[in-house]
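User: Hi! Is it possible to get a structure for several chains at once, not just one? Here's what I have:
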Amino acid sequence: MIFIGVALLILALFGAPLFSIIAASAMLGFYRSDIDLSVVAIEFYRIAEMPVLLAIPLFTFAGYLLSESGAPRRLVRLTQALLGWMPGGLAIVSLVACALFTAFTGASGVTIVALGALLYPALTHAGYRENFSLGLVTTSGSLGLLFAPALPLILYAVIAQQLGIAGNITVDAMFLAGILPGLLMLTLLTGWSIYSSRSLPLESFSSEEALSAIKQAAWELPLPIVVLGGIYSGYFAISEAAAVTAFYVLVVEVFILREISLRNLPAIMRKSMVLVGGILVILGLSLASTNYLIDAGIPSLLFDTIQELVSSKLTFLILLNIFLLILGTMLDIFSALVLMVPLLLPIAIGYGVDPVHLGIIFLANMQIGYFTPPVGMNLFIASYRFKKPVLQLYLATLPWFLILLAALLIITYWPWLSLVLVNS
Amino acid sequence: KIATLAPDGTSWMKIMREGATEVEQQTNGRVKIRFYPGGVMGNDNSVLRKIRVGQLHGGAITAGGLSSVYPDIQIYSLPFLFRSFEEVDYVRERVDPVLIKGLQENGFISYGISEGGFAYLMSHLPLDSVDALRQQKIWSPEGDQISLTAFRTIDVSPVPLPLTDVLTGLQTGLIDTVGSSPIGAIALQWHTRIKHIADIPLIYLYGTLVITEKAVSKLTPGDRQILKQVMEKQFQQINQQNRSDNLGARKALQEQGIIFHQPMNGDRQSWQELIDKVEQRLNQENQLDPVLFKQIQQHLETVRKVKG
Amino acid sequence: MITKLKRLSALLLQMEDLLLTLLLTSMILLATSQILLRNLWDYSLSWGDPTLRLMVLWITLLGAMAATRENNHIRIDLLSRYLSVRARRISSLITDSFASLVCGILAWHAARLVLFEMEDNALFLDTWPIWPFQLIMPIGFGIISLRLLLNALIGNQGQAVS
Ligand code: NA
Ligand code: NA
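Assistant: Yes, the chains can be modeled jointly so their relative placement is included. Here is the combined structure:
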């Protein structure tokens, strides 16, 4: 078994497609457990059973279309005009935009693909260092998981509620609990952005330039308002917001602004769907490998081992962070929630951890897990999207990783931050 | 190896695990049952596929989910079929064995049917009349053709959504009315978004634990008997527990200030018209066994006559 | 003969691209018209969402097929950059053959799944047999497997065909 694991690792390091490695490990696992290998196909087919996945091709296409049009240029001009006088202005706008976007898409890599494509060229164009920009867009891919209406917040509340041991958990409580920890992360990253961009030239604010930039971006400006407003007012579900975005962008860029010709459209569609195929095929097969883990009871086995080492609440929380960080790099957030919350929650309550607080710790860990080297999923998505070696992404995200780790420690050991809004 | 949608830690799973321990003890460890709770094995269709290829040996599956194996199993879930738990008990005592036999003929051993309660229409807008109902954005479970036909018959165009999207749908106003049992509404947090309930049983919800005949036939006859005895006993317990949980949840909803609308005298007429219309339409489109359906209707007539 | 074969294969590739574009276009149109129908006419398509989800499955496999054609899959690939040209050639022969084998097995088991669904007479929207809609899985993985094998044999280092 160890030999096979090492062989797969070597194949991966020498460039076998990631999906084939995941598929092979799932199939080997099932084979050794005497389970029919068509289970892998059954799990893969669950792609056609998850409504939220529809948002991925639609947002991706919209992002590609926007990035091929003049929109990034206009966005840079606009943010420069509005916030250019501030140090780190564009970086801050990027962070906030990504956090908002992720809150709606649930950190499935959509943010990097759709917004990153827009922000990365804008950032480098505005003079930010390549590694800083890469780090920002990769990190931002999961920033915002703690803000409403992120699906994981809702899911955590529902799972915890059904356990019947955590009385005060409601979706509203989770929405409230996430606000301050989320803002803490945003604030720390903003500080880092201001510090990093201190040498970039500042401009004086010109209302003429601002007005003209707003006019120029008039067609794109309603987009966030329509999409966010649409979701909050109940006109759209997330996948519908994605549809509206795709449709709106298509009409604006192709038929109104005519920056992309109908002849070029198929090529852009194809290019964006190549990326979607690459991501979803991995997702589908990782459903199968996760299913093998569940079938073989490996997560609970792993956890039992860790549980033996625990003596105090402090040790428990430290180990919890380590465990969840590792878990977050390997599992998608929904599987992790479904698998681990029922096991973790009773134990955490035993150590005196508030269930709402545990939820925030859990999601904050998952958020960082997305870009924890060496295997955090968003590292690969970013590497793929921006055509940079993964190693460069490890380096680029390192400062961001350390800052969010500090935020995570504060969130974990200072429950007040998560609970004050809930209890007030 | 048995998959369920119920998460670990629920009373449902506790009773099932107790049963598993009892079976293991009584068979001296020859029969071990492992559960995969919380839907980790996927939805009903996914679980059935995995049963087919042998990864799983059984699952706790809803009536709708099992309809692909044995269509008649969903016969109790015809809208407005039952009007009270009294009628349910009378009919189920007589018809459950027929359904369980039907499942066995299709290769599945069932250890009893467990009640999920009555689904009622729940909304954050008033539900005091049929006209009010037509104004609303009603959720229908995705893929559930019966409820879809039922709603269409009464000129309501429902919004089909998967279960997981319902809470968000209520929060955003995508839908404002759902059909749910009281325990379901509380467990899924839907009750935080509703203010009104139409106090007319809409649909009877239920599910069953099935294990494939192939897996069971590998056991010795003695072990098979123990499994049957213990699991049937546990399932009866779950059935009763759910009944009392639902009544408790109903009370909790009332205490929370949610208004239960009884159909008024004038209204009762229009509700009844609506119910008749749905029944007629479903009878026409029905692919269910007409003999069995007639049987159930006869039982219902008997019990309604006795009640006066 | 060879030119005919080449023309045929070019035609097939064009069909594949056309299908991908058509799928995405109809996805956008279907999803948007659902919203319009619901908000303007208070009407919902019961078949809308299940159809859209199947389209996501088709897009996944067609996209992955195109990604294979361009040798453009997500990889960890930390070591091959340190290899000489000759060693890299051997390394990609091994990794691509491995991936091709994996996809071949996936295609086989996906085909078995389709067969099961056919035997069980599983239905899509309670009306049509579902298995034709699932055929994309064995076909997709089969084509990916063949393309990877071709890559392994001729040492295609990846080029965009568009
Ligand atoms: Na993850
Ligand atoms: Na899962």
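Chain B touches chain C through 17 residues (CB under 8 Å). The CA atoms of residues 169 and 175 of chain B lie 5 Å apart.

User: Great, thank you!
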